[in-house]
Amino acid sequence: MIHRNAPLTPTGRLRLARCVVDEGWPLRRAAERFQVSHTTAARWAGRYELHGPAGMKDRSSRPHHQPRRTSAAVEDQVVRMRRDHRIGPLRLAVRAGVAASTAHRILQRHGMPPLASCDRATGEPVRRYERARPGELV
Fold first, then answer.
1. Environment class of residue 10 by beta-carbon count within 10 Å: exposed (0-12), middle (13-18) or buried (19+)?
2. Rounded distance, CA 108 to CA 68, Å?
3. At CA 57, angle to CA 51 and CA 54, rounded to 5?
4. Cβ proximity of 83 and 44 under 8 Å
5. What is the pLDDT of residues 7-33, one digit of tens each?
6. Contacts of residue 67, Cβ cutoff 8 Å, sequence gap at least 6
7. Which tens digit of pLDDT belongs to each residue from 30-40?
């Protein structure tokens, strides 16, 4: 998705890159014409040279890999302990040997609600509703 203040759309990026790469414009002149910095113009021209028109699309800023991500075995252990013992992230962190924030993120990632919003007996999320007056559904 294009940022609302972005100076170039994918079409504008393609026009800028074609001016620099195909037509041989100086980088600074093209940057001035399209009202972007010369480093931005160089970035789009480089992507055009490498990938062609397909390189003008927005890219995700998400990392390609996370070398320090919590292992799947530890995540499974945290989720299993949560289901079996119904304990919060602080106690889970101590038992699993991870930080409390990590335990909390694991629970969120797996869609497990906070203990306060769960039924004590079953562990299922409590679904409440409110009506304007008593007996409204009858």
1. middle
2. 18
3. 30
4. no
5. 788 999 999 999 999 999 999 999 999
6. none
7. 999 999 999 99
Query: Which sequence spans correspond to the domains of the chain?
Result: 10-56, 72-116
3-state secondary structure of 125: strand
Secondary structure (3-state) at 121: coil
The two structure tokens encoding residue 86: 């119904």
C-alpha span between 18 and 8 (Å, rounded) = 14
Query: Can you give the pLDDT at residue 26?
Result: 95
Q: Which two tokens stand for residue 131?
A: 């009506």
Distance CA 65, CA 137 (A): 51
pLDDT in tens, 108-131: 999 988 888 777 777 777 777 777
Please give the C-alpha separations between residue 129 and each of 13, 17, 65, 115, 122, in angstroms, as whole numbers. 50, 56, 42, 19, 19
Tell me how far CA of residue 109 lies from CA of 95, 98, 117, in angstroms: 19, 15, 17
